[in-house]
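Lab notebook: predicted structure, single chain.

Context: the supervisor wants predicted structures on file for every construct in the current expression panel, including those that have not yet been purified. This is the next one on the list. No modifications to the sequence; it matches the entry in the shared construct table.
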Amino acid sequence: MAQFDLPLDQLVAYRPARDEQPDFDAFWERTLAEQDAAHPLEHGMERVETGLTEIVTHDVTFTGFGGQPIKAWFHRPASADGDLGVVVEYIGYQGGRGLAHEHTLLAQAGYATLVMDNRGQGSGHQVGHTGDAHVGGPHAAGFLTQGIEDPDAYYYRRLFVDAVRAVDVARALPGVDPTRVVVSGGSQGGAITLAAAALSAARGVALRGAIIDVPFLTHVRRCTEITDAFPYGEIVQHLFAHRDHVEQTFRTVSYFDGLNFAPRIDVPALFSVGLRDEVCPPSAVYAAYNHLGSTDKDIKVYAYNGHEGGGPFQLAEHLAFVHRVMA
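Prediction complete. Output recorded below exactly as produced.
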C-alpha cells in the first residue's frame, strides 16, 4: 500500500477539532461508579505451568463490567526479589490473551506483566478465554458496532471498564509495586490503553507511562471517510443499512474515541505510526498524539510499514521506554 494519508510535514502539525459530548466526563464517572457499587472488584489467581523456567505465570480472574469474570495472565520473573513495576498489556482486535507462554518479553526484562483478555474476542490472531454476556441489538459482524445506538449499551463501554479494573488488579497483586504501573497496547490495545490511562487518572491512580502503538478507535469519523479497511468498515456496513442513524452512531462513538481521552493523559507516552497503515490511518494516530495532555511524549515513525508498525523494532523501543519510566 502506498502512502495515502496526509504527508508527514502536515501530520506532525495535525490537531483537528475534537467532537466531545458535554457530559463526557460525567458519563465515565457514572459508568465507573455504578460498576463499583454494583460489582465490587475481586480477584483470584492460580499458578500454571508453562515450561518457561525463568518466568512464573498465574491465571488471574477478576470482576469486570457487569460482574462478569475476566481472565488475564500474570507473569513475573522467577528470580526477582521485592516488589516490581508492572506493565498492563491490552490486546488487539479479535485477539485474546493468548496461551500462557506468550507475552513474556517484559517479564524477561525484569518486570511483572498482566495481560488482559478481551471479552468476547479471542478467535482471531490469539486465543481468548473470556465471553461477553451482554451482546444485543442489530450490528455488523464484529465488535465495533455492537450496541452502537446507545453509549450505555456499546461494547467498548464494557471493555474499557474491564481495562480500568485490570489496572486496579495489577496494583493489588503480590510482588507488585503499585506506584510503578505502565499501560500498553497496539491497535485496539492502543485504544484501550488511551482509555485506561485517562480513566485511571480520573480515579486518582498515577501511572508511570503509556505505550500506544498504531491506535485504533481514534478520530473515528475521519477514518470511516478515508479508508475502506476493516474494522472501520464495520461502521460503514452498519450505516449503509441504517442510513438514518449516522449522527447517533458517531455521537455514541465520541464517548469512546481516543481523541477525547488523549487530552486527559498527562504521563510519559510512547506512540508509533505506520505511514502506510490503512487499518489505523496515520492522521488518526497523529491526532491523538498531538492532543495528548503530556509534554513527555515521543512517536516512532515507520515510513514503509502498515499496520504492523515497527514490529520487533518497536519492541526494542518498549524496553527502553519502560526502563526509563520505571526507574
